[in-house]
Amino acid sequence: MADSLSNAKCAMCCENTAKYRCPTCAKITCSLRCVKSHKLTFQCSGVRCKTKFVSLDNYKCSNLQSDLVFLEDMDRLVNSTAHHSKNKLNRRRQNFQVRQLCLVAKQHGVDLKLLPYGMSRRKENTTVFNRKEKCIKWRIQWLFPEAGVEYTDKCVSEQEILGDALIKYIDPEKADVVYKQSLKNYFEFGTQGVCVFLKNELVPGTKIRYHQLDISQTLKSCLIKKTIIEFPTLHVVLLGKTASYFTGSQHTDDACAV
């Protein structure tokens, strides 16, 4: 550029030797001050027009490089727009599914409360309303305090008997072999020797109470008139270890429906 501008005077101050050529209007300038002055005077953006026609005779390596950068920018913009549109569509679909789930849960007598997006329990929740089967498929978190372990079922139909959903974990004959080691304390008693509790979310923390669920009933029946935050967390407790789950509570028909 220095050779092409040698001996040429600045188009603005007309005193100093020019050092720069505007990629938009080709005005030559000598300093930042004159560059700014020319932009203001001629209403020039100072940005090269990337789509300006360049004849083959004048086409140089710098033009090729600039065109490649331009094409990469356009490709990035297209992908970004498509990704944004896809995310927007997915979020709209998710919002519809969430509203539908909450509505059906309410119709089924469940007070379902969902946390804001971004919270871990919200992200983990796989509970959905299955329109084909017309039932809620719940995510269930099983806690086994006597074994110090927990397991999760991602999709349990509300029409399933609660005891049947528990069989694969602690039934001596039908339980999955992968649970036999970690849940060996429970295998001696099976489903007949345990109680299942659901925390009563409406009670202050100083007075923790639990609903004892009837495992001979469907999950849908067990959750009626209960408050669920995202998905049920069920405590599977051996019969001789249930005292602490009734601390600070009264054995009413509502709190202990067995």
UniProtKB/TrEMBL annotation:
Function noted in UniProt: Required for box C/D snoRNAs accumulation involved in snoRNA processing, snoRNA transport to the nucleolus and ribosome biogenesis.
GO terms, molecular function: zinc ion binding
Top-level taxon of the source organism: Eukaryota
Family: Belongs to the BCD1 family.
Keywords from the named record: Metal-binding, Phosphoprotein, Zinc, Zinc-finger
Organism: Stylophora pistillata
All residue ranges annotated as the HIT-type domain in the record: 10-44
Coiled-coil regions listed: none
Pfam family, one: BCD1
GO biological process: box C/D snoRNP assembly; maturation of LSU-rRNA from tricistronic rRNA transcript (SSU-rRNA, 5.8S rRNA, LSU-rRNA); snoRNA localization
PANTHER family, per database record: BOX C_D SNORNA PROTEIN 1, BOX C_D SNORNA PROTEIN 1-RELATED
One Gene Ontology cellular component annotation held by this UniProt entry: pre-snoRNP complex
Protein name: Box C/D snoRNA protein 1
